[in-house]
Write a structure and sequence with these properties.
Structural class: mainly alpha
Largest sheet: 2 strands, antiparallel
Oligomer: single chain
Number of helices: 9
Order of helices and strands: HEHEHHHHHHH
Number of strands: 2
Strand content: 5-15%
């Protein structure tokens, strides 16, 4: 799926989701953001404002370090301009750089665990597709046709691209989990490096 092939003019209806899918509940998060802006940022919404406005003065280089501050707190907001994809990506990396697997803040965790990694919007596109097709609760899984519609795949997109998006990662994850079957603490390390493999390296 190429970023340039997203369907134009498509309208998506938002609905409140079950508690089990609350992290994916766009409607709740959007409402929270709108309220936050009005109460914390002290901004009064105007018809010319973008819900996700342009943000500047964010240091990409600082985010890749273990510095105490990311300086995202010094960002400048321009409500009358829309946020660029690059700004979204930078803010994403700003938000996740210190979060470890248990949701606890550990300075520089992402950089220390995955050298040179830089999350992009592709993170959401691929992971979201895989979740809805394979990993969501059975009653909430989507057909391939529905996944294609929501992600904006073009009608002539090759079957090979769909297969790579949906199945290759699942096969790789299964190999990783099977290889870890003898780990004493297997439940805590499914799909991750074990204590033993860390010692080997």
């Amino acid at each position: 799926m190429k970023k340039t092939e997203v369907a134009e003019g498509r309208c998506y209806n938002m609905h409140y989701l079950d508690d089990s899918e609350s992290p994916l509940d766009v409607l709740i998060h959007l409402t929270t953001w709108l309220t936050y802006v009005e109460t914390k940022v002290d901004h009064k919404w105007d018809d010319g404002d973008y819900i996700f406005p342009a943000v500047s003065k964010i240091s990409k280089s600082v985010i890749k370090t273990d510095a105490v501050y990311t300086y995202c707190e010094n960002a400048r907001v321009e409500w009358g301009k829309k946020m660029s994809e690059q700004a979204v990506i930078t803010l994403l990396n700003c938000a996740v750089r210190d979060i470890n697997r248990n949701g606890v803040t550990t300075r520089g965790y992402v950089r220390q665990q995955w050298q040179g990694i830089w999350f992009t919007s592709h993170t959401f596109r691929r992971a979201g597709t895989q979740y809805r097709f394979m990993f969501a609760p059975p009653k909430r899984r989507w057909s391939l046709r529905m996944v294609k519609w929501w992600t904006g795949w073009t009608q002539n997109e090759s079957a090979e691209t769909l297969r790579r998006y949906l199945l290759d990662q699942a096969a790789a994850d299964e190999d990783t989990q099977n290889a870890d079957s003898l780990a004493p603490d297997r439940e805590a390390h499914v799909g991750r490096l074990t204590t033993f493999s860390r010692r080997k390296h």
